[in-house]
Predict the 3D structure of the following.
Amino acid sequence: MAAAAPAAAGSGAGRGRWAAATVAAWGGWGGRPRPANILLQLRQGQLTGRGLVRAVQFTETFLTERDKQSKWSGIPQLLLKLHATSHLHSDFVECQNILKEISPLLSMEAMAFVTEERKLTQETTYPNTYIFDLFGGVDLLVEILMRPTVSIRGQKLKISDEMSKDCLSILYNTCVCTEGVTKRLAEKNDFVIFLFTLMTSKKTFLQTATLIEDILGVKKEMIRLDEVPNLSSLVSNFDQQQLANFCRILAVTISEMDTGNDDKHTLLAKNAQQKKSLSLGPSAAEINQAALLSIPGFVERLCKLATRKVSESTGTASFLQELEEWYTWLDNALVLDALMRVANEESEHSQASIVFPPAGASEDNGLPHTSTRTQLPQSMKIMHEIMYKLEVLYVLCVLLMGRQRNQVHRMIAEFKLIPGLNNLFDKLIWRKHSASALVLHGHNQNCDCSPDITLKIQFLRLLQSFSDHHENKYLLLNNQELNELSAISLKANIPEVEAVLNTDRSLVCDGKRGLLTRLLQVMKKEPAESSFRFWQARAVESFLRGTTSYADQMFLLKRGLLEHILYCIVDSECKSRDVLQSYFDLLGELMKFNVDAFKRFNKYINTDAKFQVFLKQVNSSLVDSNMLVRCVTLSLDRFENQVDMKVAEVLSECRLLAYISQVPTQMSFLFRLINIIHVQTLTQENVSCLNTSLVILMLARRKERLPLYLRLLQRMEHSKKYPGFLLNNFHNLLRFWQQHYLHKDKDSTCLENSSCISFSYWKETVSILLDPDRQSPSALVSYIEEPYMDIDRDFTEE
């Protein structure tokens, strides 16, 4: 519906209401004008939808008079004219001219807002963007942009790309500077969906994509891509640059929304949410992932983008055009700031002739121009590629963790993503920093926000997702390395891993080294304080996860991984909890059931002093080290049941195995593991403490020592003056364990594969411990005295 005519030309009831509102703002016809009151009432009208809401509710004479005192830069009057020239039957020529007048008033302010002039801007009483929004400018531009959705006599209205571009630019600048505008736009779901249709034009693509990204970032409910008209056609027609930029939007639409509340990350809350989700069906993120995977060639194009070399990227001219867009499009202001600085530095040496006019310079098109010599600095090309690959790798990573994981795995293997990334590893992904390494404005080279740093982390996250519990992990090796795995199995006289035999050799890495080996090389060179250590360890650990493979372990042991981990834990005395946890987890997977690994451990930790430093790190936080404790405990149990001279030698010499074999040591670990967790605080991170405590008790049960361990726990409770506290807590934890694991196939399979203990034995042990019969010597209730019994507490979360 068209908006009402301006007050100056109106009459009747409409004019009466506006006149009354104006009188109120003036404090009555006889009062002194109060501009602050006007703005206050406009703001109130914006919130309630009643009273003063738009410039058209004032006369032009009134607005001009007030502008002289309040310095509104003529914006309300321009909005009055814009309304008058943007009606349904307008040719929009005059409308576009007015937009050209408004645009610089807001863009200059927005540019200042994201640069060093921000403080000055904030001191202004009523910035232009604020006035523009307050007098209804945002709503008016939304109406203008959506004119093509209105039909007159069966014909759709059209507005030019240039006019759409101006509207989008003004809207974005207002979002940048004025609080609440983005959220209001996010509430207009029909407008958000409509914006996607504007991406069909290359002229308006970048502006539209950037505005959509900002809107979706604050939208309470995730948008559904299957509601976007002709989504498949839209995405299929994107060129590679557009597709890479579109991935920024996809990052918001395919990731499950995070509440930001730590309580919601507890397993109780997650289980409750899963029950709720089952009744509601697939989430919006899952629907969006499925919609994208149904687009022909989508994943293949992402793989090509991710593995494209810098020399293969789009030519200089098109990149310069995009830089020009960035120059006027503030979403990329920080990136552009970095690009411009490097361009200026390198132009002195390379004679690159890229000229950027100063902010506010009067250009015909407001864009930077290039001379006939357009030699683009290499660092700009690299940064261009890095920014693209960041978004693409993120989308691929999310898809790899989604419901269609196996489908995505099959496709990215087929399209040779892993060999392609291997070829880019040295020159782009893990390239050496130059003296003028590129960083964003206000950040430093080691900041996690740096594009170089973020690319490395995203790359490592992708490797972790790709390798985790999937036989395609062997694509991280080259042919020679796969042969090495076969040779290790042959020498050890054990069957070759079936997944190695089934690996399609045409899809593996080429070159002298595979991706896993390259990762190990940079991992060992990483500085002690590097934030990459955590992600590197996680990526390598994911290669070892699942059913333990002796050949996989030996492949990594032969490359010095165990010694590197021990150096970091013991000699560098790592202080980061996250890094320590990732190193302990990796060490556990590397050593589990492997006699050679324990021999190497004992050779490195060859003094009591070193061993005490190691134990200090282990005992400093069992949440971080419990997976190692579990793996050593499981290994000890297996070794004790083997008749082998090599194993007997390790059992007699290894300090770590001797330490874990002592019952007091096991009881100390067991008591602390149970004591540091509670049902209400269980998360995906610390639930491993519960499972490690169960492993200790299952192995005790095998040796018919379960009653002894429970009796010792009871004594430890009494010695701490808290009878019943620990065992009641453990009883509740085991009840939760039954609810959590008996309905989740993946988790139960993981427990079975990682421990080599059948899941039926896990279930039986838990049932025995929860037996209500107080006469049972293996039931927890037999060791909780009646006055201290508290085992029926309801811990469910609705």
